[in-house]
Specification:
Length: about 220
């Protein structure tokens, strides 16, 4: 039985939504139907966790082991919507372009925005695809394939810096890629070699708000 927030539930919902959109059902109706059908097939149990815990603590990153702030930033992309498939041009075997991201204004007092993208379904634990720090609180988007002035990109689990796109094992169910944007109350001063773990450590105790966007990709 798949539960809301589980990998199987997310994959099933994504496939149902894609099927309905192919049949010409408007996006909002397709999203609502795709969310409701798995719940009808597998009703939520009373003792089910309200929020999915991290899948693992890995060599790649400690990932989402921090609480979500009360203030939420709406993080979105013009290339895909939340819990839908990431287009192939952003994949490691595609054009490997970083996806465009947009977000709502952070709260007053924000000194810096930082971004991490992680695959939480990787076979060896969380795999880091993107670390970007030093994003000005005046900035509200990252264009496709490029970054605004002043943004510093950290290390990913491929061993390089900047964005390196999805490349899950062939035949796996689509993996989930969590894009996480943090608003913090002081400049973090992280350099080009910063890792996702260093970002998670640095923002702890300084988060004013956060936003999450999940994309799926399979081969």
């Amino acid at each position: 039985m798949s539960k809301d927030g589980s990998h199987k539930h997310d994959v099933k919902r994504t496939r149902l939504r894609a099927d309905r959109e192919r049949r010409g059902i408007p996006h909002e109706q397709a999203d609502e139907a795709a969310t409701e059908e798995p719940r009808q097939d597998n009703p939520q149990q009373d003792d089910a966790p309200a929020e999915l815990a991290p899948t693992s603590l890995s060599k790649g990153s400690r990932s989402m082991d921090d609480p979500i702030p009360d203030n939420i930033i709406e993080l979105r992309s013009a290339a895909f919507t939340d819990h839908t498939l990431i287009p192939n041009r952003f994949a490691h075997d595609g054009d490997n372009a970083s996806p465009p991201l947009q977000w709502t204004p952070p709260p007053e007092g924000t000194e810096e925005l930082v971004l991490v993208c992680e695959d939480r379904d990787a076979p060896d634990g969380t795999f880091v695809h993107w670390v970007a720090t030093g994003i000005s609180p005046e900035v509200n988007e990252l264009p496709e394939g490029k970054l605004p002035d002043g943004v510093t990109q950290g290390r990913n689990s491929w061993g390089g810096t900047g964005w390196d796109g999805p490349a899950p094992p062939v035949g796996d169910d689509p993996h989930r890629y969590f894009f996480r944007l943090y608003a913090v109350d002081e400049p973090l001063g992280l350099g080009a070699d910063a890792t996702a773990d260093q970002v998670h450590d640095a923002v702890r105790g300084h988060k004013l708000a956060a936003g999450t966007l999940v994309g799926l990709f399979g081969r």
